[in-house]
Design brief:
By secondary structure, the chain is an alpha+beta fold. The protein folds into two domains: 171 residues, no CATH class; 143 residues, Nucleotidyltransferase, domain 5 (2-Layer Sandwich). It has ten helices and 14 strands. Strand 4 and strand 5 form a beta hairpin. Helix 5 packs across helix 8. The chain is globular, with a radius of gyration of 31 Å. The two termini are 62 Å apart.
């Protein structure tokens, strides 16, 4: 199982002087490589492969010692590998007749990835920690939470965001044991706009809203940014303030989603969600902003991996008709409920909140899906040794083999249910 842990970096002044040119050279390489492939094909009809560019990278680093030569070879090669994957995906979409999407040129590069040593984080003086970054040195890092004891660091991504530096560690940990028992605490969750989630037990989780004060500040900063001249220093300063405010709002929203998903994973061992594609719902929808702020996809992914760490189950069930069917008798609403109707009243006498009714339907479908997954398939059912064949073809020959030659006696290990068939043998 793979997890990502993010930590804050505090580069020293001399390291900052090296990191900025580092990103500049990577940006040059990331733009030069696709341009080389494009020009070679348009001018000479010659394809340029990843191996060709890798060989040129070795020669270029030896020639340009103050430019590409200052980069770590693994970091530069990772840029070419990502570009090759982008071109492979481009050609695959062309062959499939889809919208191809040629790899884009970069305006700026804000991150790089490298494969670390066995233990990239080492202790330093005064109880601090340092992360070894190739060609940069030992960068101070703040470990606000400890790494799992048996985790192996597979890769490290160093990135910058609004003047701050972060390191994202991709960890490989042993797979947790799969669930062996039926769930004892199950819940169905209906995701919505007025409330982030409504549980099948009636609990409602509010949407993580942006405080009114920060919304006003964001609108004011964006108005000021639109009045500034692009490329000026004032434009850059105002752009940084907008980015920092958006980052703070995003972090607060993610923190709340982490809290809710953690509580669900700790309380329940089976969580059922609707299998909804949030991207399709957002496109052309007047409720696009509330849907985006709710973070349906993020909260589902957080709950899934946290339940997997605790050997729980997280299922996605079909969403068709969950809000239009009664959770008690299964009768569909006639006429169908509109978005403004928030109560579900059924002729059978069941009356409840619409979202709670949908959450109960989601839980019922989750139980059905779980029983179908746990039910053994016909291919897994094997005939016991010594029993009769399942089909009628070959049954007489099978019975002949079980009878001693020249007699009508049945073999001692023949099941009693087969005695009635001996009279039909020749």
């Amino acid at each position: 199982m793979f997890l990502s842990f993010q930590y804050r970096l505090y580069p020293l002044p001399n390291q900052l002087d090296t990191l900025d040119p580092h990103l500049g050279e990577l940006n040059f390489l990331g733009n030069f490589a696709p341009a080389q492939r494009r020009d070679a094909w348009e001018l000479r009809r010659e394809p340029v492969s990843y191996l060709d560019q890798q060989a040129q990278l070795r020669r270029g680093r030896a020639y340009d010692s103050e430019g590409l030569g200052r980069l770590s070879y693994d970091v530069a090669r990772d840029t070419l590998q990502r570009l090759d994957l982008a071109f492979r995906a481009f050609f695959r979409r062309v062959r499939a007749g889809e919208r191809p999407g040629f790899p884009r040129f970069r305006r700026a590069t804000g991150s790089f990835t490298f494969v670390p040593k066995s233990r990239p984080i080492q202790p330093a003086a005064n109880g601090t920690r340092r992360l070894h970054v190739p060609r940069i040195g030992e960068v101070p890092i703040r470990l606000h939470r400890a790494l799992p004891p048996d985790a192996v660091v597979k890769s490290v991504t160093v990135r910058t965001e609004t003047g701050e530096w972060y390191a994202t560690l991709a960890l490989e940990i042993p797979d947790p044991p799969p669930p062996t028992e039926l769930p004892k605490r199950a819940v169905g969750i209906d995701l919505g706009v007025t409330h982030l989630a409504t549980l099948s037990d009636g609990t409602k989780v509010p949407v993580p809203e942006t405080p009114l004060r920060e919304e006003r500040r964001l609108r004011r900063f964006q108005r000021d940014l639109s009045r500034k001249c692009r490329g000026s220093r004032r434009y850059a300063r105002r752009k940084d303030r907008v980015a920092k405010l958006r980052r703070r709002i995003r972090r607060r929203r993610q923190w709340l989603l982490h809290q809710h998903s953690h509580d669900w994973a700790e309380t329940f061992d089976l969580v059922c969600f609707e299998d909804l594609d949030a991207a399709e719902l957002i496109e052309g929808n007047p409720l696009a902003r509330p849907l985006t702020e709710a973070g349906w996809g993020a909260v589902r992914e957080m709950t899934e991996y946290k339940l997997a760490l605790r050997s729980g189950r997280c299922l996605r069930v079909p969403s068709a008709g969950t809000t239009q069917a009664c959770s008690s008798c299964g009768r569909r609403a006639d006429p169908p409920l509109g978005l403004g109707e928030r109560r579900f009243a059924c002729p059978c006498g069941s009356t409840m909140d619409r979202d709670e009714n949908a959450a109960r339907n989601v839980l019922a479908r989750g139980w059905t899906l779980l029983h179908e997954e746990l039910r053994p398939s016909t291919s897994e059912v094997k005939r016991e040794e010594g029993g009769p064949p399942p089909a009628r073809v070959g049954r007489r020959a099978y019975l002949r083999r079980r009878v001693a030659p020249g007699s009508r006696e049945v073999s001692p290990d023949w099941p009693k249910s087969g005695l009635s068939h001996i009279s039909c043998l020749n």
